[in-house]
């Protein structure tokens, strides 16, 4: 993959609200709405100690989390059961624990890479899963029209090769769609609208949104992150 954008900013975990349509320049376009819940910088990892630069972010309010994560949050003095995730970046300049990350991290016209898990479709045959043509409709084929046919050989090598396309579980796999363009941003409700409806995942599922690597970085984006205000000013319920 040819990486054009060498600068690395923070990626954000957002919620896939769903699909709709909007009008731009008298043209009707399908869009996907992504919502950013309250997101805060919980911890910082530096190059000198960890070998790379990254931040630990917390978002949302979960009903249950694993005990190690709960102990980690208590150690940081956080009462909320927020969802934790890590994002690498090039430079830690201006990054401080307790800062709130806003939807102003992105700008209209910017291209994004969005990663999520595709819809799970259960067990599927080879025609649905791998687009096989199936067997002939007549001439000796009986009750096996949608089967895959032979999978291996006889004596040499006498086995089925690893990775052979066969029937199995379809969907629920990690998928990244690239070069999704931002058409509009609702700063009041922390919602961005990206062009197209091919964002992976079901409604209200989490997707990881970051700058596109195959497009140059937009000149107006804040670097390394778009911040709103201090956690102590607006999140007294989050931190003890």
Automatic annotation (TrEMBL):
Entry keyword annotation includes Metal-binding: no
Keyword Ribosomal protein attributed: yes
InterPro entries tied to this protein: Ribosomal_uL3, Ribosomal_uL3_bac/org-type, Ribosomal_uL3_CS, Transl_B-barrel_sf
Domain of life: Eukaryota
Recorded GO CC terms: ribonucleoprotein complex; ribosome
A GO term, aspect molecular function: rRNA binding
Listed GO biological process terms: translation
Pfam families: Ribosomal_L3
Entry keywords, A to Z: Ribonucleoprotein, Ribosomal protein, RNA-binding, rRNA-binding
Family per similarity comment: Belongs to the universal ribosomal protein uL3 family.
Entry-linked NCBIfam families: L3_bact
Name of the protein this chain belongs to: Large ribosomal subunit protein uL3c
The species this protein was found in: Pararge aegeria aegeria
Source organism phylogeny: Eukaryota, Metazoa, Ecdysozoa, Arthropoda, Hexapoda
């Amino acid at each position: 993959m040819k990486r054009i954008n060498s600068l690395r900013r923070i990626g954000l975990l957002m919620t896939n609200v769903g699909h709709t349509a909007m009008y731009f320049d008298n043209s009707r376009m399908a869009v996907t709405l992504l919502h950013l819940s309250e997101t805060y910088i919980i911890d910082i990892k530096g190059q000198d100690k960890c070998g790379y630069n990254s931040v630990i972010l917390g978002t949302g309010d979960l009903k249950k989390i694993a005990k190690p994560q709960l102990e980690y949050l208590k150690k940081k003095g956080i009462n909320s059961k927020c969802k934790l995730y890590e994002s690498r970046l090039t430079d830690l300049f201006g990054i401080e624990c307790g800062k709130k990350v806003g939807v102003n991290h992105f700008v209209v016209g910017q291209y994004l890479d969005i990663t999520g898990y595709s819809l799970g479709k259960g067990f599927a045959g080879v025609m649905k899963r791998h687009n096989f043509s199936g067997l002939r409709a007549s001439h000796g084929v009986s009750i096996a029209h949608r089967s895959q046919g032979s999978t291996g050989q006889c004596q040499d090598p006498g086995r089925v090769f690893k990775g052979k396309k066969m029937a199995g579980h379809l969907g629920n796999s990690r998928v990244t769609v690239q070069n999704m363009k931002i058409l509009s941003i609702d700063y009041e409700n922390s919602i961005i609208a990206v062009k197209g409806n091919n964002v992976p995942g079901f409604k209200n599922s989490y997707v990881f949104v970051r700058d596109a690597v195959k497009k140059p970085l937009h000149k107006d984006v804040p670097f390394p992150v778009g911040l709103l205000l201090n956690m102590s000013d607006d999140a007294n319920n989050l931190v003890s």
